[in-house]
Specification:
- The protein is an alpha/beta fold and 223 residues long.
- It has five helices and eight strands.
- A hairpin with a 5-residue loop joins strand 7 and strand 8.
- The relative contact order is 0.13.
Length: 223
C-alpha cells in the first residue's frame, strides 16, 4: 500500500513538473471516489464579518440567500449565522432540526460575528486581495483567499439590479480582459464573482456603460 502511494505521489510530482504552465489533471475527473468519502458534503465557507445586520441584509436581500441556522456563544463573545441558497419552505423552525438541515446543505456561507467589531472604525478583516487591513507593517498582503462566487441566469441583468441596489463593483461585465462576468463586494469588502449559468455571453454595454470592446486587461487581485 505504501509503495502504491509513493508511486501515485511520484506520478503527480512528475505531472506537475512536466510543464511550466500546463498540468495534466485529467485523472481527477475519473479517479474513483474513496469509499470513505461517499457521503461527504462541501458544506460551508466561513468569513468573519464586522456587522451581522449589514451582512445578512446583503446576502439575503441582495443575493437571495436565506438564513438557515444561527448560534449564539456569549461565553466566547461571538455568533455564527449560516446562509444558503435554498427553498425557504424547507427550512425547519426547530433549532435542532435547523442544525441538521444546515449540515446537509451544500454551499453554505458561515458569517461569524465577533462582538464589538461593529463598533470599530473602518475595515476590520483582511479580504485576501491586495489588502493592508490587519497587517502589522501597513503593507498590502498577498492573500490566499480570492472570492466567493454565485451564478445567475443573466450576468448583465443581475448587475443592473446590483447597481440599482448600490452594490460596489470591482469589475463590471465588460470591464477587464475577461468579458461576461463581474465582481462585486459584500459589506466587508470580500469579492463575489458573478458568473452565468450557461454559456459566457456578452452584450454591447454593461451596467456602467462600458462597451464590450472596452475595459483594461486582466488584473491579478492578489497583488
Amino acid at each position: 500500500m505504501q509503495t502504491a502511494s509513493r508511486q501515485q505521489a511520484g506520478a503527480r510530482l512528475s505531472m506537475v513538473a512536466s510543464s511550466a504552465n500546463h498540468i495534466d489533471v485529467s485523472q481527477f475527473f475519473s479517479n474513483p471516489k474513496p469509499e470513505a468519502t461517499k457521503d461527504y458534503i462541501m458544506q460551508q465557507t466561513m468569513i468573519r464579518v464586522k456587522d451581522p445586520q449589514r451582512s445578512l441584509a446583503f446576502y439575503c436581500d441582495v443575493l437571495g440567500f436565506n438564513l438557515v441556522m444561527f448560534r449564539e456563544f456569549p461565553q466566547w463573545s461571538f455568533n455564527v449565522y449560516f446562509v444558503a441558497q435554498c427553498d425557504s419552505s424547507l427550512i425547519p423552525s426547530d433549532p435542532d432540526e435547523q442544525w441538521n438541515f444546515c449540515m446537509r446543505t451544500p454551499g453554505c456561507i458561515e458569517l461569524t460575528w465577533n462582538y464589538g467589531s461593529e463598533n470599530e472604525t473602518g475595515a476590520v478583516y483582511n479580504t485576501g486581495n491586495s489588502d493592508a487591513t490587519g497587517s502589522q507593517d501597513g503593507q498590502k498582503v498577498r492573500g490566499g483567499f480570492g472570492h466567493l462566487g454565485i451564478t445567475v441566469p443573466d450576468v448583465y441583468d443581475a448587475c443592473e439590479r446590483f447597481k440599482e441596489l448600490g452594490v460596489e463593483f470591482t469589475k463590471t461585465p465588460n470591464g477587464g480582459g475577461m468579458k461576461g462576468l463581474a465582481f462585486i463586494k459584500d459589506p466587508d469588502g470580500y469579492l463575489i464573482e458573478v458568473l452565468p449559468q450557461g454559456k459566457m455571453i456578452t452584450k454591447p454595454l454593461d451596467c456602467a456603460g462600458v462597451a464590450v470592446e472596452g475595459g483594461v486587461g486582466y488584473k491579478d487581485n492578489s497583488k
